[in-house]
Each structure stands twice: as structure tokens, then as C-alpha cells.
Amino acid sequence: MKVACDRTAIVAAVNLVAGVVPARTTVPAMSGLRLTAAKHAGVGELSLAGTDAETSVVLTITQVDVAQPGTAVVSAEKLRAILQSVDESNPTVAFELDGDLFSIKASHGKFKIITFKEGEFPQIPDFAKAAAGARSAFNAPAGTLRRLIDRTIFAIASETSRYAINGLLMKRDGKKLEMVATDGRRLALCRATIKASGGDGDKVSCIVPRKALGLFQRLAGDPESNVRVAITDNRIFFAFEDGPEGAKEDAKKHPVATLSSALVEGAFPPYEDVIPKDQDRRITAAREEFIRAVRQAAVLTNEESRGVRMAFNKKSKSAKITSRAPEMGESEIDLDLTGFEGDDLEISFNPGYLADALKTMDEPEVLIELKAANKPGIIKAGSDFLYVVMPVNLPA
């Protein structure tokens, strides 16, 4: 292998793919990245692959000059550290494999790393094979999938014995796509409509782990670019393409990145049952003003009094948001409302839970639906996002 790489491109690629490599492993080669240099139609490419056995990423960059194709498995930690130490004034970094020594050259430095044996690197699941036998395969814009993930990932449970809610439920029914996450105290649900693609009658659901979703957020670049999704019995695959969906086939390149992950086992709870259907108070507020008021009130809270009290008043069409923490102080924030249906109500929420949802929205106005002080509230934005949050009990 002998390759010259654009420094910016290779640093970004290594940082991204190294994110999947486990910090500790009993398989030494799994702590490495597999680098494969090749030429396709005269264009040089360098593919980087990393895996922790559960999740895998393959990323291809073309800002390279391939003098000699080849493959090397190199320590992810060492390669990353070396590239980060290279001065930004170096526009190019050169790689060369000689036996089991991998050389890295910049204008003022040269490094040599002992490589792992290529055969010891774990096998990466193949997207094409998976898609051919998938339970469901479809296309969607990267921006659509990213929006669904951004609006739900924060509600995924962590460190719970209920393993199934440690991931995000993805449901596809023809052109309808839905993602749901819950930790038992709140639930986020977001929907989207995707264009027609093969197998539009398919109905499928699966639970995707948080790590894979975080990698998707980092891999998703151009929101208009196409992502091919394939779901098998135990894995999910995302293949990121260069061009937008609908581009001519001869203008498309093979995927610039492929992400695959094992699915979370277990049955997701029947989330429809916890979405309230009988809310009798409907309150609308400007999203920016609402989140600003919540954040201001949250300043004077602590772990013992992690809640803000909201007093909604129909007559003045306003809400008074207050907080109080022993030995710290108290706050009182006034919020004007744009609409109010129903009777006055006082209810308390964890401000962090409210902010988590509000900051993912881009709609100018949100709808808050309430029933009683001890009943869950609903926040809606547009027709595709719904957030259920449980109230908290605060001392009088």
C-alpha cells in the first residue's frame, strides 16, 4: 500500500470511524482500523472500517492518490493520536505499508506502527447481501432520518433492566416511518412520510441501539442525500450515498459510508397505551419564549428540587413559571401564551425533560395538552411530533 491523503479528509474520517472501536477488547485486531486503498475507474479511494462486533462503520474517501493498492490494520488509538499531532500546515499525509510496518509521513515527521494481521480483523457485515435478503429495504433522505432520530434519541433509557427501552423503536408501514423512545418517565414520538420504494407494502419494526443512532447523526451530511436502509432479523444497515434520492443511477457512486448494527432484543412496551387521549386543556405558546422561560426558571433548582412549577391562567392568557431550592433562592418567570382552552391549572415538570424536547423543534409554536396536576402532559409540534412527560411532585 502506498497512498497520499488530504490531511483534513483523513483526520475527519479516522476520528469518525474510530468512534466505533471499543476502548477495551480481548481481540487485539478489533482495536484497529482496517485501511483499504484501491482504484475504481481510475479514481483513488481509501476505505476505513471499524467495529466492536455489534456495530460497524465503513467510510470511503476519495481525496487520495493511490500509488499502490493494499490493506493494513492499524491501531485506531495510535493512528488518531499521530494524525492529530501533525501540524495543520501539512496539506498531505502519506501512508505506506512495508511488511508489518505502517509508515505515516508528513512534511516534518515520520512514524511507524506495527500492524495487526489482516485475517484477525473481524468480518464486517456486507450491505448488498443483507439488502438482498432483508425483511424490509427502503430509501429515505438523510435529513428525514436525522430529524426523526434527533427528536427521539434523547428519551432513550440508559442503565435500566428493561433492556428493550435502551434503544429506539423504528416502525415502517409502507410510506409511513415512525420512531419512538421512552425511559418510563417520558416518551418521544416522531413520524415522517417517505417516497415510494421497493417493498412498499412491508410492515416491520425493530429496536435500534443508541450507539448506532449517534453514529448515524455523525455520518448524515447533506440532508438531501439518499440513505438506503435494510432491516434483517437481527441487524439494521444504513448505506449513505453521494447523490440525492432520484439521481440517475449512472451518476451515483457506491455508498460513501455504511453503518450496520445489531438490533436490541426484546419487545418494546405498548407505547400507544400511555399517550393520554382525554386532555381537556389546550395551551399554545411561542417555542422560543417557552424554552427561554423554562431555562431561566431551571437556574434555581438542584437535585433535591429538580422541578419547576407552572401556573397556567386562562384569564390573563399567561403562565407563571417558578422554582425554589433550599439555601439557593427562588425564581419567577412570566410567559405570555398565544392560546388557552380549558380551566386554570398548576402543574410541575422536570425542566430538563421539557428543554430536551423543545430544543429539537424548529416550529415557531408548540401545543401543550394537560389534564390534571398528577396526570402526564403532552407537547406537540406540527402534526408529526408528540412528547409525553410525567409531572413531578414538589413541596408546597
What does this structure look like?
By secondary structure, the chain is of the alpha+beta class. The chain has three domains: 2-120, Roll (DNA Polymerase III, Chain A, domain 2), CATH 3.10.150; 135-272, Roll (DNA Polymerase III, Chain A, domain 2); 275-389, DNA Polymerase III, Chain A, domain 2, CATH 3.10.150. Helix content is 17%, strand content 43%. It contains seven helices and 26 strands. The protein has helices at residues 7-17, 76-85, 127-132, 142-150, 210-219, 287-298, 351-358; strands spanning 2-6, 32-40, 43-51, 55-61, 64-68, 70-75, 92-98, 101-106, 109-114, 136-141, 167-173, 176-182, 186-193, 203-209, 225-231, 235-244, 257-262, 281-286, 308-313, 318-325, 329-336, 339-341, 345-349, 365-370, 377-381, 385-389. The strands form four sheets. A nine-stranded antiparallel β-sheet has the order 14-11-12-13-26-25-24-18-22. The protein has an eight-stranded antiparallel β-sheet with strand order 6-2-3-4-17-16-15-10. Strand 3 and strand 4 form a beta hairpin. The termini are far apart. Residues 243-253 have low confidence and may be disordered.
What would you say about this model in short?
This protein is α+β, with helices and mostly antiparallel strands and 396 residues long.
